């Protein structure tokens, strides 16, 4: 089973385009795994506890549970609208999750992995973490990335993270704890050099933060939000659970935790593997991380203070959910930052979907209808251009599969578009509309149209993880709904049977006209 998760989002507002990119990327990968023949289990959800949530609730003058529930609904509604089809939904206020976190804490406490200590020093409210002298910048200050920094004196519980640092270095270096893209691995090794001797504070005193999971062995404290949130990946996967949950042994280790670069270090690359190691997970049971970049706006970070937050719900309303899906996984190169650009969204859609693929499907079907009565004939006619088309399809399919294996959705979609462009060039060169006027060219006409229609069948299968509804429409127009059941390994030439009657074309990707 291919077990894939995303980060769980803080529901302290409405979801933004960065949240949407991550969920869509993960959905596309999960759907592609299924297309490639795997069983896939996709878990996502919301991270409802923590100081950020408590602060927003205080600011808005609402109960924090009410805030969490209200905003959680916005996330669920958006994922539905965007076709993000998850199998499991993680909400950290769920009883089963609380129970799992408390069981783990009890076990670590009993085994001497936790200790209590007094702390006096600085604390970043934004990052919800204690700061050390090493966190100061060259000017000797705590930089803006830490947000508001306050001075604190309090007792807390600590996890002996430093005891696992050497082990972590080994598994990061050996690749047993996988981090992709590979350049992120160095970032983790560097961070480990800096943080190897620091333990992790895993509690917050209740008088400062009440919105969290109570420590089972010291009820004056709640669990630090990251210690709680990371555990979602196993609690909702059935770890040590009696409830009606997935079979943990079938899911774990996670094949992929899809996360943004901001939560790689220290949370996912340091805390999480060390927590798992302390719980007794072996090297073979370490998950793999897929780290994506950030979506920025004209080179700037999105933030409510800059007022540049992009709302994916409004974009889906205006341009369609699948247009947004296509744009995000086509334009953003995995691992790299990208600028969100609505003009580019329109251009990519109009060029690659409306003009290239839409045009190919339309002309292939309408000409087949008009000149062959819609019946795809087995024709003996062949020539170099048709052989080149078959090679182009084989090459594009191979490039698509290879790119998708490394989660490079952008390269995969470019590979598909290359074949679509080849097909449109093939139509221009072979002019089936001219061939149809000459009875002696019947065999060539049938062959040319077959090559075009067959290409539409292949492309509609390969593109289906990204634009599932549009591809289902193409399958229906081809009158081959069974294409939805095809695996990428079944895609040999001849998906369209000889003698098959195709349906009428109806534009699947209508052009977007942007008003000035
Ligand atoms: N709750 C934590 C994650 C806990 S995972 C056990 C959190 N939440 S978040 O809402 O701030 O971010 C959720 C995900 O969205 C993260 O993976 C983060 O990197 C991603 N993104 C947030 N802003 C983003 C962009 N502007 N662009 C792309 N992804 C971004 O962190």
List keywords for this structure.
516 residues; alpha/beta; Isoleucyl-tRNA Synthetase, Domain 1; four-stranded antiparallel beta sheet; 15 strands
Any overview of this molecule?
It is a single chain. The protein has a domain at 344-490: Isoleucyl-tRNA Synthetase, Domain 1. The chain is 47% helix and 14% strand. It has helices at residues 17-35, 51-60, 64-81, 95-110, 165-174, 183-195, 225-230, 232-235, 248-251, 264-279, 312-319, 321-331, 342-372, 384-405, 409-430, 432-435, 442-462, 468-477, and strands at 2-6, 40-46, 88-91, 114-124, 129-131, 149-159, 178-180, 200-201, 203-205, 214-215, 218-223, 256-260, 288-292, 295-296, 338-339. The strands form four sheets. It has a six-stranded parallel sheet, with helices on both faces. Helix 11 packs across helix 12 (321-331), helix 12 crosses helix 13 and helix 14 (384-405) packs antiparallel against helix 15 (409-430). The two termini are 49 Å apart. The structure holds 5'-O-[(L-methionyl)-sulphamoyl]adenosine. The site of 5'-O-[(L-methionyl)-sulphamoyl]adenosine (MSP) has 19 residues, from helix 1, helix 7 and strand 12. Residues 7-10, 18-19, 21-22, 47, 229-230, 232, 259-260, 262-263, 294-295, 302 line the site of 5'-O-[(L-methionyl)-sulphamoyl]adenosine (MSP).
């Amino acid at each position: 089973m291919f077990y894939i998760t995303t980060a769980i989002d803080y529901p302290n507002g409405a979801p933004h385009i960065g949240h949407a990119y991550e969920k869509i990327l993960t959905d596309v990968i999960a759907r592609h795994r299924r297309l490639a023949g795997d069983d896939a289990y996709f878990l996502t959800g919301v991270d409802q506890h923590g100081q950020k949530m408590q602060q927003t609730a205080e600011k808005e003058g609402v109960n924090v549970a009410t805030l969490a529930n209200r905003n959680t609904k916005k996330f669920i509604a958006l994922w539905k609208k965007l076709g993000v089809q998850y199998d499991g939904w993680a909400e950290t206020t769920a009883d089963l999750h609380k129970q799992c976190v408390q069981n783990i804490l009890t076990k670590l406490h009993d085994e001497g992995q936790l200790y209590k200590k007094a702390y006096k020093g600085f604390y970043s409210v934004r990052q919800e973490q204690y700061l050390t002298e090493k966190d100061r910048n060259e000017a000797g200050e705590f930089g803006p990335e830490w947000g508001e920094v306050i001075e604190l004196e309090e007792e807390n519980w600590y996890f002996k993270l430093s005891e696992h640092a050497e082990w972590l270095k080994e598994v990061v270096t050996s690749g047993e704890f996988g981090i992709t893209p590979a350049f992120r691995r160095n970032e983790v090794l560097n961070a480990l050099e800096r943080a190897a001797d620091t333990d992790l504070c895993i509690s917050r005193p209740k008088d400062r933060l009440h919105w969290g999971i109570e420590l089972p062995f010291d009820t004056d404290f709640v669990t630090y939000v990251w210690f709680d949130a990371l555990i979602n990946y196993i609690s909702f996967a059935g770890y040590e659970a009696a409830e009606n949950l997935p079979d943990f042994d079938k899911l774990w280790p996670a094949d992929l935790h899809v996360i943004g670069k901001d939560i790689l270090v220290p949370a996912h690359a340091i805390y999480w593997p060390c927590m798992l190691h302390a719980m007794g997970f072996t090297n073979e049971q370490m998950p793999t991380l897929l780290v994506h970049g950030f979506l920025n706006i004209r080179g700037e970070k999105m933030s409510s203070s800059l007022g540049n937050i992009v709302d994916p719900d409004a974009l889906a309303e205006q341009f369609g959910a699948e247009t947004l899906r296509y744009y995000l996984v086509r334009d953003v190169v995995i691992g790299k930052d990208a600028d969100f650009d609505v003009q580019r969204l329109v251009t990519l859609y109009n060029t690659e979907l409306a003009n290239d693929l839409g045009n190919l499907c339309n002309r292939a079907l309408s000409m087949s209808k008009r000149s062959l009565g819609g019946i795809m004939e087995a024709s003996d006619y062949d020539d170099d251009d048709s052989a080149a088309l078959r090679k182009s399809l084989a090459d594009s399919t191979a490039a698509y599969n290879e790119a998708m294996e490394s989660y490079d959705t952008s390269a995969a979609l470019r590979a598909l578009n290359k074949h679509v462009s080849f097909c449109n060039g093939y139509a221009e060169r072979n002019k089936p509309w001219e061939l149809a006027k000459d009875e002696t060219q019947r065999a060539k006409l049938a062959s040319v149209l077959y090559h075009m229609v067959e290409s539409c069948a292949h492309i509609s299968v390969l593109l289906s993880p990204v634009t599932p509804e549009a591809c289902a429409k193409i399958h229906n127009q081809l009158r081959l709904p069974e294409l939805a059941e095809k695996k990428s390994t079944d895609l040999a030439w001849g998906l369209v049977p000889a003698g098959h009657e195709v349906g009428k074309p109806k534009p699947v990707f209508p052009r977007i006209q942007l008003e000035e």
